[in-house]
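Module 6 notes. Inverse folding takes a fixed backbone as the condition and produces residue identities as the prediction. Think of it as a translation problem where the source language is geometry and the target language is the twenty amino acids. Below is one complete input and output pair. Work through it position by position during the lab.
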């Protein structure tokens, strides 16, 4: 960032409240408004059947968490038109999302579909399940998860791919050379 511009930015001031957002932004189109549903349609289920990646957002009094989740197509299970479930597989063992859900059951899921210029969002309420039948349904090969997150859908909607297009996310020429940034291991060594 230009040092002169950076010096002019006040990052310590209070958050501005009372901004008239309706004056600044046009309202969403009728198609967008009608596209927000409280249940899954066959169209949504077709996308969930091919989904291999989403980010999950949770929160608690201690803060917010957004974490990636991935798996083979179909790893998100549709239980009915109002309910989906997914296994919680081991990652870094911070289990921030799970800890948050024990305090605040609100959840957001943002699905990306590699090569497609569309996002799908599910917002709802979640619970951590230990039911053996559900754990078995979410198995991957010989592995059975310790827990499954069951989401009751409040909203499901699609986003257009403008952000994907701006980022050129699926274009090979925009992929970052691994040597352009330090590895996470390098970063850990610097912090010691």
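Target side of the pair, the amino acids:
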């Amino acid at each position: 960032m230009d040092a002169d511009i950076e010096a002019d930015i006040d990052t310590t001031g209070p958050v501005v409240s009372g901004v008239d957002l309706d004056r600044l932004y046009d309202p969403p189109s009728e198609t967008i408004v009608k596209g927000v549903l409280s249940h899954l349609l066959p169209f949504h289920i077709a996308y969930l059947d091919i989904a291999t990646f989403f980010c999950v957002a949770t929160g608690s009094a201690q803060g917010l968490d957004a974490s990636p989740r991935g798996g083979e197509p179909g790893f998100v299970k549709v239980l009915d038109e109002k309910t989906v479930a997914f296994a919680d597989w081991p990652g870094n063992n911070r289990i921030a999302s799970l800890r948050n859900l024990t305090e605040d059951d609100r959840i957001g899921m943002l699905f990306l579909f590699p090569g497609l210029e569309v996002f799908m969002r599910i917002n709802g309420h979640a619970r951590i399940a230990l039911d053996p039948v559900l754990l078995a349904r979410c198995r991957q090969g010989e592995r059975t998860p310790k827990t499954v997150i069951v989401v009751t859908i409040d909203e499901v909607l699609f986003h257009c791919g403008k952000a994907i297009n701006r980022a050129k996310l699926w274009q090979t020429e925009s992929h970052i050379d691994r040597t352009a940034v330090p590895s996470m291991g390098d970063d850990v060594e610097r912090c010691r």
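Reference fact for the lab report: The chain has a mean pLDDT of 91.
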